[in-house]
Amino acid sequence: MAQQNRNVSGVWNFYKVADKENPHLAECNECAKTIRRGKPGTAAKDFQVTSLWDHLRSKHPEKYKEALSIREAQRVKRQKTNEEEAQRRSLYQLNSQQPKLVDVLAGSNVKIDSNRQAELERMLMYWMINQMLPYTTVEDAMFQSFIHGLNKKFVIPSEKVLRTKLMPDLYRRIQYKLKTFINTVLKTADYSMSCDIWSSVCLDSYLGIIIHFITEEFERKVVVLRCLPYNSAHTGDSIKSRVSFVLHAWGLSEAKLHCSVSDTASNMKKGLSAFTWVPCFLHVLNLVVKNSIFVQSGVKLLLKKIKKLIKKLRTPTGKRLLDENQCQDSTIIRPTDTRWNSYYLMIDSVLNKKAAVTVTAQDPQLSLTTTDQMTPHDWELLAKLSTVLKPFYVTTKCTEGDGVFVSEVIPNVKKLVKEITNLTMPGIGTLKSTLLAEIERYFVSKYDVEKQPHYSIATLLDPRFKTAAFSGRHTASLAKEMLINEVLERVQSSSDRSGPSDEAPAENPEIEILPTTSSQSWESVLDCSFQSTDDEGYEELNTRVRREVTTYLKDSKADMTCKPLQYWKSNKCVYPNLADISRKFLSPPASSAAPERLFSSAKHVIKPTRTRLKPDNVEANLFMAKNLQAFQGCDFDPCPNEFCPPNSENGPRPQSTMESDNDQPTRGSDSSDIDISSDDDE
Question: The pTM is what?
Fold first, then answer.
């Protein structure tokens, strides 16, 4: 038919040439009327179809619409053909060797440029690592169809190639990049560390070790060193040996380790005591709540009743009854003993649905006895618990991020005490007093955060708080003296390192040591005109440092929206010594939430369908996923052949302690929830 030729108008589906002798005439297939489309004797290429379209539009409107549809289909087909032709032409430019005509016509893959293939493989690996997908993803037929739809030239690597070549090579490159970066930055900076232990559903334990430091550009970096497989007894000595092994493997000096943050479990406290252990603020905060409110008998009985009620409400029958009782959101949170604030969230969710829960609990279909029903006194006590627990919930949410400094601990404790003291709800006097007593016990008597330099100096160096965050002038003055002494010690040590070291100096080059004979008196020895230039230099340095610290503290504190690192970057020329030392004291996080988040991500790697995944492969997946996020945009260039990866499974392993050889139960649970463990003396 005529419409099969893309150069012939679709209108010819409804016309035919009248006869060969009069090609300028066309006959309508519908009414047999002859339409003139040009003058007699005109060349065929000069004939027009405008008159044919006009006849259809005026005499046969339905056929006219059909002709328009055919014309549009022809236009789309021509456009697609032109795009395919342009793509075929581009193949000649991208490939040095001209493709075969039969391959182009058949639409088969043409060999891709090697650089482009490598770039697409890298993008594929980054995506799989970020989403923590199994390597078998590339074997999925629908995935392959999707990729080929995007780029037919890309050769998808097989699962074996990913597992044995591409991923191990990327793992090695990331380790080389990180080790080079860390060792370069930490030549002039101190670092801090956060640690925790976790056990998976496969009963494999892992020791998470993360370091925190601040670069010369005052950028905070969080680097995952290891998620070390740890299937042995979790004793303090064992933890210490493994941490030392990891730091040594990464070339990190223990002398530059400022402090280590972990929970208050006795084994972690003992294992990290050699690395200046600092308790996790959030764990201590939840111990305050646990040992003050949840130990009261009335509260225990109420929570037990609420748990039983929630168990009934979370059944299909309970959910249906809640929906029937006009509960817009029938979701009720079930508490978890190892998760922060879960009891507050449970209480809040029940109080928000009080009316619906009350009616539903009385329904006989739930089979609740009279003693299991919520009484008005229970609801009143539940409201009181929500009131006193809310400040702890808000404080926890504000301090659980990676960007929270240890300098925020003292201000948050002060703010928490003030908020609890100002609570005016009747009938909560006992709850308030027990909470304040536990806060005093932990943050003053036990850990005394305002007198610990890791907290107090960091608080002074935070331009948002300075001395205003302390509870009194005495502790603020002590913190100021600690800051001055720390700056003096740092400046002196820097001067000693930068001084001449080729020859060993004499014990005191300015003192002439005279022979002591019986004919000499002590006066002749002591009567030398010796002036202690070192003492004079120290006094001058002391005066200069005190002036710098005093000027900084007298300056008005910054707004709460101020970013401390940005402040020190802008004022490093004004307060050079304080800016330098701020990189040390602002490096620790307020909590050990970073390794907790690492283990939470592990749930995306260790799934019910991947329980046979080896612990070393779990570590590799987590290591690459976290550090690719931390160093987004970095190019991981090939590493030298002689490079020994710090996390290599063929590398040296730490010596196991005698306890490690015993098959003892390991600390941790089968989830990544945060374990609110008690102190070693409780």
Answer: 0.73
